Amino acid sequence: MAIGEKTQTELEAAVFRRLVAHLQGRTDVQNIDLMNLAGFCRNCLSNWLKDAADERGVALSKDESREAVYGMPYETWKALHQSEATPEKLEAMKKVHPGH
Length: 100
Prior knowledge:
SMc04008-like fold, globular
């Protein structure tokens, strides 16, 4: 890519914001489905956001990073949108991501 580092960072930030907005709008997509299909979920994104803040010495709590990704407090999102995972989905997750 023949663009400057600042422009690249701005583009990457715009893509991240668009991904987060997309996931906030797709509350029908469960985190376990994301993990099983893509290998990451909303919690992963919030953890990566917190990791990036920590690396730069920026104060950001786990709850704050989750709220940034979910668009609301995590417990509220879970109560409104998270359904019980089926045994099949849980088994698939164990195979694909044994550490989670």
